[in-house]
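--- STAGE predict ---
source: upstream dedup step, 1 unique chain passed
mode: sequence only
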Amino acid sequence: MIFRNRSCSKKARPIPAPLTPRIGPRRLATLRTRSLTCSWAASRVLPLPWAMRLIGSGGKWCSMPRHVRSNQHKPASPATGVSGSQRMRLHARLIFTATLVLSAFLCTLSRGEDGGFRAERLSDGVMVTFDGKPVLEYRSAKDAYKPYVSKLHTPSGVQLLVDSPPDHVHHHGLMFGLSVNDVDFWQERSGVDGLPSIGRQRGDDLQCHVESRDEGPQKFVVTQVVDWLGRENRPLVHERRNLTGWHEKSAKCLLLTWSSQLSPADSRESIALRGERYVGLGMRFSQVMPQAGTFLFANDRSAEPKDRNENLIRASWCAYVAQGSGAGATVAMFGNPANRRHPTLWFSMVEPFSYLSATLDLHNHELPLRSEKSFELTYGMAVADGVLGHGEIQRLYQDWLQQD
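--- STAGE serialize ---
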């Protein structure tokens, strides 16, 4: 459709069609006038009141063909008191309004196709995004010592983790590891005389999908089967791993659930979980989370943090908050009351680097697992921009418990 403009000289000249909707992910719909060009993606819609003011700004728009225009100056009808030109302008306004409203509606529909969580397969893992922004990357390379979360982003896109730094090459973002019998699945290098023996977590059947529900938030789910291999690549532990993520109600915070179900492999009657004071579900923070950060603990904490180097404190949750160069960030880890040895014993340190780990107190008491009963651990996480207070973190913990 070609709309024409009636200038003061009454010379008609063609101008581009006022609205050309093109439906599809990230395609543009464009509105042009003589003095203004306004473009918006499928995720934005032109405000209707603005369009109505444009439509009613003097009857500049006309959509009748050239052979009809000669009739637009007919005198007003005695019955209605409306001239032919007024009727033509009214028709043009109605057509323009209907086109605009329909385009806005279609653009809104197309936004749902491209919005929300999306999972993309990588050569050695999976990447999850939300509305085009990165959320996390889960790596499971064949030659790696363990599968892990290599990148974790706040809702604004700040990346919080570091993967295999020079000072501790076995620190991989967010990872789960400990010792089984006399095989170490935390370290990646043997010590003196080849002890301890270093094991490898072999991940298979990596899956990721997005769940959309009529009620409740949209979620992404990463699942994997992990075999913990000891000497001569013999399986010691069979693990079913599940990582689920969603946004809380205000969409200002990402909530995660990490669940690991462990059982002895190869018909073993029992195994023993062991390890140093820091082993478990650990998280190594990047330089975005500076050493000036602070650890907060739930009200049921067993003690107050006294040392910036290392602390071991029992509590329902622990959070690391840091101001950083911008607005800062908050990362909280939650313990499930159904976990063995709850409340969780948190290992935390700020210097010489920032680290947080949910442990099982294995350096004091090993944990036996028998074949007739599986062992499940469930932890939660909250990732938010800005520095959250104690009350806000407690509310997120309660929200996570209800969803989990």
